[in-house]
């Protein structure tokens, strides 16, 4: 048996080579994707650590009277997932500012420990000269050092709030330009200010990023009013790479499927050519299971050889592609990472999958009667069983019926998904009997244009079509993945543009990034930004959170509201915000559905609601709305306040909030005087002069270096959309690479199939030549065979991709008609080219062969 396997393996070198090449290409992609993903992940983490520092949370307070004691720090350290902490102390963070030497800008005093984690803080990284201070030393900011002509090692007197000046030695220079900062040794500063053991904030490094949410919850349970910077911006950057993984893994699976289909086709052709040899083995006493094992062993040998070749090629190409990929994704260059365990498991899984796929031709070959095979009759076992035909018809009819039924009722996304998958499965099962129908139909269309040799091409194609069924399926797979994937990517791109236009009604957002218990920007900070040249800015004040007190349960949409029982009825939570609607309307016009938005009406306990708010809650123009402050989320001390406001206007939408937000808008006088809400959550602004944008960004970023504004984040619509476009391009390239590879599988299979078919039919074409047929006529006949097969496969792929794509998009809460069909038409136009290329080389070889030799030599 072993010798026979090796004989078959080496006896058909071209066929075996094509099979190994197909498997190797699939494995190369699989190996490259694993290596580059692991390397990208390491590079991404390194880039994040270099850019943002190697810590995961910033925990603490922003008021002098609030602090963490030594026992509090010990509690946080005892949390199992906490790896390390770095404490900082701000003695005068919000009171008693220190001015000295006539400087108009107060000094910010910070106590810090000289440990590795503390050096990860952006502020500490700005010590470009010298070192962190020890007891009796200080690090001062560059502007003050320059102004006083000081150097490292000089002595300087530093004032403190309750004591005389202390003489300290300068140990380093802090490179900040717009703020005065003095860094001290933590223990020394605590002792000097008589606040031993007090910590204002700390950096926290975790053992595992997956535990971040659990750690935050534990800290909040112990310290309810503590501020926690979750560093969401870093997590957002990690999401870019995390989002690539499912895309890459999904494409790897489809590539393996394409490789398996190619393997099935090549094995079927190989077995068809060896019918006499296999029949001889049966006639000499060979059993069915021996032939079955023979084919399986050959498949294992081919898949293992291809996998080893793919492993070597994948590792080599990874080294070649690494630097280009890192530069493209703007990541630091790191040593390549080879996850051997994952790669070997993936290769073993690929070999197993391809071997399992070879069970189909192995079983069929073992079931062919030896005399039938010996006479080279068409193998009866290749005919599709009637049950498969009826199952495919049932799937297609059920899918169409489900879709029509779903359109006639309130659409269900799940039914759309099931219907699309049913149709796809049904068509793939029906390829063997649908493909001949399509070939006849396409041939008939072509005969209307030129009928001289189309009839013969059609008949030849139909006679050899059983060889090409799997290859047509591979081409269909490429078209479906490419078209559906591309259409979904386009849809996501459009959705992202819409979301960004809603999130960013103006070009920039300066977000205070504070929790409810913390103050946002002061009005003074807003004024300083609004007064910058070429600036058009609007403040978004912090919200008050309330429960309704007079909600009419009969008028609401219960399924879309979160209700809770109160005072014998059901109420819901809403938000109240102070805003200058008249000014906003002039710059960012919105639709006034009814009523008015003028300030005089709002100051008299008036309120404006959105159209969505009205539809969900049932409140109309002129209705009173009674509110009670939420106990947990109220501003200030004392019992929850109550107020009744009159609805004076309905708008659609409010530019600075999502459409489905349950938001009430009143005048800022009411929110300030009654509820004490005077701080700003976000500042939206545009820069009216394009050439001034960079300078404005620079000035605002300088303001954000103030430690009291360390949490604030400046983002822009253009920058955010640019990041998304980069992700979009990455996924587009991955999709294109996968589709191209699957199309290449189809091309290789067709090339192999055509070469085998023409080898068997050399005598037929020689007779045509002997009867006066010209070379170009024979060439045209052969080329038309490839064009017919791939056009039929492309048309079927187009139909499935449109149906499946439309249903997937409908399952994403869109409509069936949102699916673009342009990509499908491009795929259909490209399909004949694959057939033309695949048939050209073997066709050219056939028409240039000698007639006499082809007439006297039987097909091998």
UniProtKB/TrEMBL annotation:
Q: Which domain of life is it from?
A: Bacteria
Primary location recorded for the protein, binned into one broad class: membrane
Q: Which organism is it from?
A: Thermoflavimicrobium daqui
The UniProt entry, under InterPro entries, shows: ABC3_permease_C, MacB_PCD, Macrolide_Exporter_MacB
Topology of the protein relative to the lipid bilayer: Multi-pass membrane protein
Q: Name one GO molecular function term.
A: transmembrane transporter activity
**Family, per entry:** Belongs to the ABC-4 integral membrane protein family.
| Domain ABC3 transporter permease C-terminal: from-to ranges | 253-370, 738-843
Which spans are transmembrane here? Answer: 20-40, 247-271, 291-321, 333-360, 390-408, 414-439, 471-492, 732-752, 781-811, 823-844
Q: Which GO terms describe its cellular component?
A: plasma membrane
- Which UniProt keywords are present, listed alphabetically? Cell membrane, Membrane, Transmembrane, Transmembrane helix
UniProt protein name: FtsX-like permease family protein
Ranges of residues in domain MacB-like periplasmic core: 16-221
Q: Where in the cell is it found?
A: Cell membrane
């Amino acid at each position: 048996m072993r010798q026979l396997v090796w004989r078959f393996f080496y006896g058909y070198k071209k066929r075996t080579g094509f099979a190994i090449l197909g498997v190797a290409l699939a494995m190369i992609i699989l190996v490259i994707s694993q290596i580059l993903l692991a390397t990208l992940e390491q590079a991404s983490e390194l880039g994040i650590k270099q850019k943002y520092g190697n810590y995961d949370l910033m925990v603490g307070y922003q008021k002098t009277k609030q602090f963490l004691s030594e026992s509090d720090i010990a509690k946080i350290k005892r949390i199992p997932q906490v790896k390390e902490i770095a404490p900082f102390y701000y003695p005068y963070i919000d009171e008693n500012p220190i001015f000295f030497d006539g400087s108009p800008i107060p000094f910010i005093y910070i106590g810090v420990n000289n440990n590795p984690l503390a050096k990860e803080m952006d502020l500490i990284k700005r010590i470009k000269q010298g070192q962190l201070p020890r007891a009796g030393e200080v690090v001062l900011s560059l502007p003050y050092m320059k102004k006083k002509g000081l150097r490292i090692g000089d002595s300087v007197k530093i004032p403190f709030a309750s004591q005389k000046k202390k003489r300290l030695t300068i140990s380093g220079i802090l490179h900040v330009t717009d703020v005065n900062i003095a860094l001290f040794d933590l223990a020394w500063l605590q002792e000097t200010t008589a606040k031993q053991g007090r910590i204002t904030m700390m950096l926290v490094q975790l053992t595992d990023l997956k535990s971040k949410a659990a750690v935050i919850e534990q800290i909040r349970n112990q310290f309810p009013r503590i501020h926690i910077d979750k560093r969401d911006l870093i997590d957002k950057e990690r999401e870019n790479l995390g989002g690539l993984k499912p895309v890459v893994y999904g494409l790897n699976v489809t590539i393996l499927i394409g490789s398996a289909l190619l393997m099935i086709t090549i094995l079927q052709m190989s077995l068809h050519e060896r019918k006499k040899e296999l029949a001889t083995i049966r006639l000499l006493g060979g059993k069915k299971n021996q032939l079955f094992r023979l084919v399986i062993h050959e498949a294992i040998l081919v898949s293992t050889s291809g996998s080893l070749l793919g492993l070597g090629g994948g590792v080599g190409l990874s080294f070649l592609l690494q630097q280009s990929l890192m530069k493209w994704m703007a990541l630091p260059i790191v040593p390549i990472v080879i996850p051997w365990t994952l790669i070997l498991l993936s290769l073993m899984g690929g070999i197993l999958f391809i071997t399992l796929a070879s069970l189909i031709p192995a079983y069929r070959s073992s079931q062919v009667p030896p005399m039938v095979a010996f006479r080279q009759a068409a193998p009866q076992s290749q005919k599709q069983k009637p049950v498969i035909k009826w199952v495919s018809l049932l799937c297609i009819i059920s899918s169409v019926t489900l879709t029509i039924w779903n359109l006639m009722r309130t659409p269900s996304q799940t039914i759309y998904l099931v219907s699309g998958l049913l149709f796809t499965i049904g068509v793939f099962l029906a390829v063997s009997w649908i493909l001949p129908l399509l070939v006849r139909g396409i041939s008939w269309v072509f005969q209307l244009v030129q009928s001289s040799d189309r009839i013969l091409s059609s008949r030849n194609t139909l006679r050899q079509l059983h060889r090409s069924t799997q290859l047509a399926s591979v081409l269909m797979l490429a078209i479906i993945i490419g078209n559906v994937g591309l259409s979904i990517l386009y849809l996501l791109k459009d959705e992202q543009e819409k979301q960004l236009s809603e999130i960013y009604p103006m070009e920039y957002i300066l977000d205070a990034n504070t929790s409810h218990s913390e103050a946002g920007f002061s009005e003074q900070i807003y004024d300083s930004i609004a007064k910058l040249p070429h600036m058009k800015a609007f403040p978004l004040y912090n919200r008050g959170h309330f429960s309704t007190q007079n909600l009419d349960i009969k008028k609401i949409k219960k399924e879309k509201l979160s209700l809770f029982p109160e005072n014998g009825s059901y109420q819901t939570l809403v938000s109240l915000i102070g805003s200058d609607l008249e000014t906003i309307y002039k710059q960012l016009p919105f639709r006034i559905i009814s009523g008015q938005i003028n300030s005089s009406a709002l100051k008299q306990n008036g309120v404006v609601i959105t159209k969505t708010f009205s539809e969900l809650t049932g409140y109309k123009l002129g209705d009173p709305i009674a509110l009670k402050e939420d106990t947990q989320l109220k501003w200030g001390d004392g019992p929850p306040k109550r107020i009744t406001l009159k609805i004076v206007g309905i708008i659609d939408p409010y530019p600075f909030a999502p459409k489905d937000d349950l938001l009430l808008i009143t005048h800022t006088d009411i929110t300030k005087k009654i509820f004490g809400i005077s701080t700003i959550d976000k500042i939206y602004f545009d820069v009216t002069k394009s050439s001034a944008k960079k300078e404005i960004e620079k000035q605002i970023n300088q303001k954000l270096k103030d430690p009291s504004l360390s949490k604030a984040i400046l983002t822009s619509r253009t920058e955010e959309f640019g990041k998304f476009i980069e992700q979009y391009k990455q996924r587009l390239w991955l999709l294109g690479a996968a589709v191209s590879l699957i199309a290449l599988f189809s091309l290789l299979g067709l090339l192999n199939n055509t070469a085998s078919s023409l080898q068997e039919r050399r005598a037929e074409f020689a007779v045509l030549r002997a009867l006066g047929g010209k070379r170009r006529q024979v060439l045209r006949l052969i080329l038309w065979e490839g064009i017919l097969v791939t056009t039929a496969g492309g048309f079927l792929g187009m139909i499935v991709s449109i149906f499946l794509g439309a249903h997937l998009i409908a399952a994403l809460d869109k409509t069936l008609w949102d699916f673009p069909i342009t990509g499908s038409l491009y795929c259909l136009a490209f399909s004949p080219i694959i057939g033309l290329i695949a048939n050209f080389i073997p066709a050219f070889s056939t028409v240039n062969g000698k007639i006499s030799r082809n007439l006297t030599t039987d097909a091998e």
